[in-house]
Amino acid sequence: MNFLEERIVKDGVVKPGNVLKVDTFLNHQMDIELIDQMGAEFKKRFGDAPITKILTIEASGIGIACLVARHFHVPVVFAKKSKSINLDGEMYVAEVESFTHKCKNQIIVSKKVLSSEDHVLIIDDFLANGCALQGLLSIVAESGASVEGIGIAIEKGFQPGGRMIRNLGYHLESLAIVDGMNDETGEILFRPQEA
Ligand code: 5GP
């Protein structure tokens, strides 16, 4: 088990409805040393790519993206969620369905902070059905920037997002891939990964 998998086993809580709570170390209270270690690991996995920007989505992706960005020495851009937008042509816009909140949001990024010159590393906390990622990918496509990779903290491998994104040909790296979890026993099964 790697350092993140060990922490998930120690402090993660399996909830009914295929939800894994990691809010004591990742997306409510945040363990900065752990997340910094995740940043170093992403740097190892994507270090050869000419990344100019880290892109994530508010809110829980932001803290992780900031610590990843420290290792790449590039800015973070986070897509904002907004229900009603005054479209003035200065924004890239995509529609995203939320897994945890079961609602639809538009996400927006200003054209000022993403352009066709950019090489983007997308970072997020979870990958489940892939809706959040599809929204971010559509924003990058609209901007003309290139996607150098996608780094995820926890992929739920039993939901379809990871396979869909890999089938599209993206370089997707998830630090922990959960292939199964049981909310009665609390058991979590990880997909074996190369060391
Ligand atoms: P997707 O769009 O891939 O279905 O879901 C991605 C988003 O849903 C993530 O950014 C995360 O905020 C949230 N999410 C999905 N599954 C889980 C989960 O099991 N636990 C938590 N805490 N968040 C989740």
UniProtKB/TrEMBL annotation:
Converts the preformed base xanthine, a product of nucleic acid breakdown, to xanthosine 5'-monophosphate (XMP), so it can be reused for RNA or DNA synthesis. Residues 49-153 form the Phosphoribosyltransferase domain. GO terms for molecular function: xanthine phosphoribosyltransferase activity. Xanthine binds at L20, N27, K156. It is found in: Cytoplasm. PANTHER family: HYPOXANTHINE/GUANINE PHOSPHORIBOSYLTRANSFERASE (PTHR43864), XANTHINE PHOSPHORIBOSYLTRANSFERASE (PTHR43864:SF1). GO terms for biological process: purine ribonucleoside salvage; xanthine metabolic process; XMP salvage. Keywords: Cytoplasm, Glycosyltransferase, Purine salvage, Transferase. InterPro entries: PRTase-like, PRTase_dom, Pur/Pyrimidine_PRTase, Xanthine_PRibTrfase. This is Xanthine phosphoribosyltransferase. It catalyses: XMP + diphosphate = xanthine + 5-phospho-alpha-D-ribose 1-diphosphate. It comes from the Bacteria. It is an enzyme of class 2 (transferase). The gene is xpt. Pathway: Purine metabolism; XMP biosynthesis via salvage pathway; XMP from xanthine: step 1/1. It comes from Brotaphodocola catenula. The keyword Cytoplasm applies. 5-phospho-alpha-D-ribose 1-diphosphate binds at A128, N129, G130, C131, A132. Its EC number is 2.4.2.22. Homodimer. GO terms for cellular component: cytoplasm.
